[in-house]
Structure formats: structure tokens, C-alpha cells
Amino acid sequence: MELGTKSLTVYELLYVIGIIAISFSSIFVRWSEADVAVIAMYRLYLTNLLLLPLAWRYRNELFRLSPRQWGWLTASGAMLALHFLLWMASLRLTTVASSTVILTLEPLMVMLGSYFLFKTKASRIMLIGMFIAIAGSAVIGAGDFRLSGTALLGDALSLLGTAAVAIHMLIGKKLRESIDAFPYNFWVFATAATFLALYNIAQGNSFTGYEAREWGIFLLLAIVPTLFGHYLFNWLLKYMNATAVSMSVLGEPVIASLLAWVLLKEALAGYQLVAGAFVLFGVWLFIRFGDKAEKPEPKPREGETSFDRTETGTV
Hints:
- This protein has helices spanning 8-23, 25-31, 36-51, 59-63, 67-90, 96-102, 106-118, 124-142, 149-175, 181-203, 212-236, 242-246, 252-263, 270-289.
- The protein is an all-alpha fold.
- Helix 6 (96-102) runs antiparallel to helix 8.
- The two termini are 23 Å apart.
- It holds the Pfam family EamA.
């Protein structure tokens, strides 16, 4: 499932598809009446169920992992589970605009982490694009931020969930250097779902007895924002730097707010639409120049050429 030759146009198209896909996540969660931990668990288990037909093709890669890689896969899955648990819970306490706009802090967290861990630097135009997008996102959510009651708790949960997914993204960036997209996604989703299952058992949440409508929402979450969103972004981590991929969340408040306006009847002012245009422009600047911020090649040691070096791929 890896492309042999990098085509920037193809990657940008897939990136946009991923942004649209993840924007439906908040809508589906708001439609469901199940506990958020149950929603997240079945979302991931059903995703892996849909991926099973490909498992035989990748049977060797699925189990050809070092103990160190298994350990970091577990950590990545734990962070993804924590992200879903906290962020989905925030959607029950605050508006879609407020919850998703806080996610725009993710690329800042990832950029800082990439700099310290991978020595990845952002270009000036990438920083400008990020600033434009974050400023526009802040405008979108400004009218919905409420510093009291359950809304404040919802905002705090979204912030903690953002930190969790940033850590997940940084771990994934390193692991994807040596693990193909399918085994990485399959095991991360399975691990995250299992952590959520243990949480549901501890909380006494029911695993059965849901109406057909709920199962339909679980399936939609597996197909749209997970397969065409998270899976796609994890696949792109091998071809784009982690900060550029994490910038996808800056487009989510725009599309999610529009969807909430149409489908959930949440208010959306004209100035928020204008801010949305600025967000999309900032995201476009970032993804257009995101490939220029990759980690530089290490200098060869004395007597060694670039062809002599091999990637260990472990963290």
C-alpha cells in the first residue's frame, strides 16, 4: 500500500479527503446516545474488522516486530484511546466549534515535539500558514467559549485529548519509518480499542443491547473518520513530516462547524465563515510547503557514503 514515487498532488488530495472525513467524527458522536468509551471502542474494533481481508496479505509484517516496536505500538495505542475518550467526552459538554477549535493546538505541540525529538524545523512560510490557521480557528470558537459550568470542563477535556493525540502522532512518525501503514494502523487500533474495552469493563458499561441505529453510527465512525481519516493520516506520516500531517486538525473546525450548522442546527455567524476561509488558506500554505521541513539527512561518517547507511527504525 506504499507508493513508490512521491507525487505531491496525490498526497495533497488524500490530505484534503482526510480532513473532510475526520470532520464528520463530532457529528456522529453527537448523534449517538451510547457512552463515549463504548463509541470509541466499537469504532476501532469495527475498523479492524473491515481491515481483516487485508490481514493475510500482511501476515508476515504483522508479527515481524521487535519487542521495542511492540512497546511503542502499545504506547501509541494508549495515547489514541485516551484522545478518543477525552475528546468525545468533551463533545457532550460543549459545542462542536469549541471542542474542535481546541484541537488546533495539536500542530503546535507536534512541531515542538518534532523539533526536540527529530530536529525537524518549520520554514517561515509554514509558520505563517500555521499562525493564520490557528488565528482563524480561534475566531470560529471564540463565540462558543464559556468559562463556567460544564462548557469549561468540556474545553479542558478537549485540551487534554489534544495533548494525547500529539504524543500519538510523534510516536507514529518514528514507527512509520520502519513499519508499513497496515500493520501499524491495525495494531494501534487494536491496542487502543482493547484499552477502551478494559475501561468499559471497569466502568460497568454494557457491550450489547444497542439499537440498530447505534450500530450504524459505530460503523460510520469506523469507515469515515477512522479509515478515511486516521488511517490515511498515519499512512501519510511516511511521506510528510508529522507537523504537516497534524495540521489537518486546523481544517476540522471549519468543516465540522459547517456540518454542525446544517445537521445539528448549531449557530454559525458570518464572521466565522470568513474566519473559516482564512483557516483553509493557512492549511493550504502549510501542506503546500510542508515537505520542505523534513529532518535533514545525517552527515556520513568518515569513509562512509549515504548508501552505506541503513535505518534501524526503532525508537
